[in-house]
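Problem statement: downstream parser choked on a complex file, so we are re-checking the raw output for the beta-D-galactopyranose run. The parser issue turned out to be on our end (a line-ending mismatch), but while we're here, posting the original submission so the record is complete.
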Amino acid sequence: MPKFLLFFVAILFVSCVNENISFDSVRERISINDSWSFYKYESAEITDDLIYDVRPEVVERNVVKDADSKPTEAISLEIKSKVLKPWILPTANDFINDPNKKYMRPEGNPGGDFPFVQTNFDDSSWEKVDLPHDWAIKEPFQTGWDSEVGGGMGRLPVNGVAWYRKKLDIPASDAGKSVFLDLDGTMSYAMVWCNGKLVGGWPYGYASWRLDLTSYLIPGGTNQLAIRLDNPNYSARWYPGGGIYRNVWLIKTNPVHVAQFGTYITTDNVSEDSATVSLEVNIDNDSKSDVKIEVSSEVYLLNDEGRKVGKPVSKFLPINTSVAAGKNSSVKSSVAIKNPKLWGPPPTQKPNLYMALTKVLQDGKQIDSYETRFGIRSLTFNADKGIFVNGERIQIKGVNNHHDLGALGAAFNTRAAERQLEILREMGCNAIRMSHNPPAPELLELTDKMGFLVMDEIFDSWERKKTPHDFHLIFQDWSEPDTRAFIRRDRNCPSVISWSFGNEVGEQYTGEAGAAVAHRLYDFVKEEDPTRPTILAMNFAKPFMELPVVPDMIGLNYQGEGIRQDPMFEGTDRIRTAPQYDAFHKKFPEKVIVSTETASAFSSRGIYLFPVTNALSAPVRNGSGGDSKIHQVSSYELHAVDFGSSADKVFKSVESHPFVAGEFVWTGWDYLGEPTPYYEARSSYTGIIDLAGFKKDRFYLYQSFWRPDFPMVHILPHWNWVNRIGKITPVHVFTSGDEVELFLNDKSLGKKKKAKYEYRLRWDDVVYELGKLKAVAYKNGKKWAQEEIKTTGDAALLIAEADRSEIKADGKDLSFVTVKIADENGLPIPDAENLIQFSIEGPGEIVATDNGNPADMRAFSSLERNAFSGLCLVIVKGKDGESGIIQLTMESEDIQQHNIQIQTK
Ligand code: GAL
């Protein structure tokens, strides 16, 4: 080979290697979830006095208020004790726009002499935990009316003060770097000390926030982090969880780097032929000198695994700029992309994703690299027609979900969240409202990847209070930083289609004053992202009131169908409202209407109570849909909370108002807390899917309407009614077909056809006999689907099915194992309640067990559990780094023992 060519090859090689080295070392994002020491004070009353702020005392302890109670005025407090708030507020500064309103840190180091923050404090007796961690979820449920934590917050010990400590080894080579602590979610009132010095904190438990540790760390040594959380009781209307319940990262960068949430991508002029992608990059200069830098970005297509494939599809022209010492500056540029692969919701579209790789160069040397995932799609909002994605009208078939993951609590787990979305997708759901707070960032990664449309939401209360310790206590100080941080974090996600900045807030009731609060928040949202419409979810505000004027879209909770229209509610002092879609459409002809909450229908999976109402929708009372002795609601799926409506009634009202963009059902999954109508229980009844992930009958009702092309038919109730022989036992059938013939023991009970606005077929006079029910569905006269259910024999078998029989050995991945009690022929017994014991061998552990029964007070960590309506769930996790075969064994008296194997790799 000629010498000059050799030289050339050598240079190429060196430059590639150099690029790789600098690429890795310019920015590191290190998970620091493992091995924390944890200590929680035994009583919420007796703790240290390092408080963020004083809180109003709660005198009336167990006041249970219905969800739609009118929020009330905040209580003003006199501050007597020393509080740490002045040292915490400066953490918000990057998210406060007016320079005059930014906070100055006072002198002093509160808590600096407290033992738990000291480097040499011996925490060896503390519990060792890995994050994400929810300190309450494994504990016993608190029962009874006078329990410390009531049904509303899930009867688990979420309240209290706790500390997390971790040692950080910071190598000497980190000297000169900027080092940040990124916390995705800390429940709540977090305050952080590093090497004995108070760094800062963030009160709102759902916020993702950052601390700059640089000046507190000692490179070349072991550094001590100490985090104090103080989670108040009466802080929510649902289970908030407690602890560092999302991921925690250490970010190391050059002092000149892309800022936190430092890129903002928007797409315009989107078509299949081309799109304009605009990118704003925000650069922080934490160094002591002014710098000149070059910012350049490339766009890559991502594959299904989220990895970049091939060469860049486009490049932004490099931009030269300067950033003054200690300041921040941003650059903007746009690029055209030819034949973009668009992001859109399945089944008609595909959620293609791109990634912008941004590089920052100083004197030709790369000093930072930053990845931003995004999608190219157009969103159009039309007040008469609804929501369009890439020109196609997409009916919102959405659900509300709270943030907890059932028996796993608030501790975020990607696989558990993915499973929730998978089951929702099977039902035909295409949209999620993040009620009522920012989700884990990884949940939005999933919605981006899977193509769900998201209504991202931040607050359940503003200035007026719903519960004594909710967000209203910190609204004045934190509403701006929380709102801005929320939007900056999520605004690159293509799945997010709108910003909801309030749910049923008390300001609906306060006219101009309330609207002024809304205006202030609206402006924050629009300043951070003018591209998406805002919305408020309103259960009370009427078209003539002030509040609905503020948001871009109208969000109605239950008002579309009408609230408490049944004559039995005449004279009530609660909200009573005639159907409102037309009135809002008339008053705001330019605003899209979305039903942000519908239904709040409820049921206990597999429980059927008689007699069955003839109504299309009915409230629950003892003897009519509910039984307060057993704390269960009937699964004929005709009952709803007093202010709600059955699914059938909602379908009718949404379908007959085609200008309505669609609905978000309350709720997709059951959630912990808010067990209306039985506050003695621990979890909700409103889910279409129960807390364990088992489908209630309602699942098939939604599927029949939301997936009209998917052949299915579903019969209810089950057919194990030895005590009902000869009694009237109504049979209802859900189908995506239009006609059904029902057979009892092969004898036809007649064919029925769905009328317009009819969503179920009812045989209300069936006289029960043991045996077999068969439903044959037709569509357009042709056979479409068939289902058969049978009376079963006695319990003889345990049948276990893992949703995945192979999982990753990373200590995070999960296998969800459904255990069925079956008769000797393998037929699942729909009313079985047998107690099952679980044990495990091999490189795995049982994380939790559940059965979806809202009234089951056995701790989720228990290794034995009764089946509920024939089913039990066991959640299994592999051990980190240990591959092998996990053997899960199930035993139950008088039933053959059973075991299954799960491979971890
Ligand atoms: C709504 C409220 C939800 C939930 C639901 C229960 O009024 O917005 O958060 O409480 O009722 O039915």
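For whoever reads this later: Residues 1-24 have pLDDT under 50 and may be disordered.
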